[in-house]
Design brief:
ten-stranded mixed beta sheet; 10 strands; 36% helix
């Protein structure tokens, strides 16, 4: 059974991501964890240490969180009502990233699925800072869904790689599972430079051939352009439904996506984006 964490702030963007997850995994037995992390705008240390109920005070922020989660569960049941899907609500007095990290470890989460809403009016900010922090700090696959993206079967999966990663089964398994479920084709996109592939890159490319043997796949090369241009040019020619990358600090991922400002991401992405960490937490 898959375990999937769905952070929500009750926005339209987060609801859209939840709908995508419910449809993507509609044929699989899943436990979904709906998370709303909240903190009071202003609070004293006593608020953290002492439960306000001890003094006869209500906790309206927590009540709002619980009510929001309850409403969302009812909405899911009304619109989807999938007997294969089970839900648990988590209202957490915590910051979002630490809470996600704790739940991923405690529940052995397989995927985190969330929206990508960026800052309003800032064209260079394509992903909200929370999403980028999750990419960088959470050690399980993270699937980010663009605002207003309507679900479509991920028939064409684009997987850019510089072959600078010693690929392991945990890196490729999430891609293969989706591809097998939807009879997808995986395109491994590589930008070829004048120097060609090193022996290390050739070995890693051969590993990918082995890992993808159960699904339709092809290796596609573009010459003498940067990876950002290559991804954009490929998407202009082919209908990509899902973009996948491995977040390896020693590969192009870090240089491509993360600018000095953590809230900026260096590529316009209009399809769901699956980020797989280079080191995935092992289940207990």
């Amino acid at each position: 059974m898959k375990k999937i964490l769905l952070p929500t702030d009750f926005s339209a963007n987060s609801w859209n991501a939840i709908k995508y997850a419910l449809q993507l995994f509609k044929e699989e037995e899943c436990s979904f964890y709906l998370l709303n992390a909240y903190t009071p705008i202003v609070y004293h240390i006593e608020y953290v240490i002492v439960n306000p109920a001890q003094f006869g005070m209500g906790d309206p922020i927590r009540e709002n969180s619980l009510q929001g989660l309850d409403s969302m569960c009812k909405k899911i049941d009304e619109e989807f009502n999938n007997p294969k899907h089970h839900f648990e609500s988590i209202a957490a007095f915590n910051s979002l990233i630490p809470e996600i990290k704790a739940i991923v470890a405690d529940k052995s989460i397989d995927y985190v699925v969330m929206g990508t809403k960026g800052a309003t009016g800032a064209k260079e900010v394509l992903f909200g800072s929370n999403t980028v922090h999750v990419f960088k700090n959470i050690d399980c696959p993270v699937l980010a869904i663009p605002d207003n993206f309507d679900f479509e079967n991920p028939l064409e999966i684009l997987f850019p790689s510089d072959f600078q990663i010693d690929f392991q089964d945990d890196h490729i398994k999430p891609i293969v599972q989706i591809a097998e479920n939807y009879h997808s084709r995986v395109t491994i996109l590589h930008v070829l430079h004048q120097s060609g592939l090193s022996d290390f890159q050739k070995e890693n490319k051969s590993k990918l051939e082995t890992f993808f043997k159960s699904v339709a796949h092809l290796f596609f090369e573009m010459k003498y352009q940067n990876i950002r241009e290559a991804i954009a040019n490929y998407q202009m020619k082919s209908r990509v439904n899902l973009l996948v990358m491995i977040n390896n600090k020693h590969s192009f991922f870090e240089k491509l996506f993360f600018k000095p400002n953590i809230s900026q991401i260096g590529l316009h992405i209009h399809v769901p984006f699956l980020v797989i960490p280079s080191e995935i937490r092992k289940s207990a």
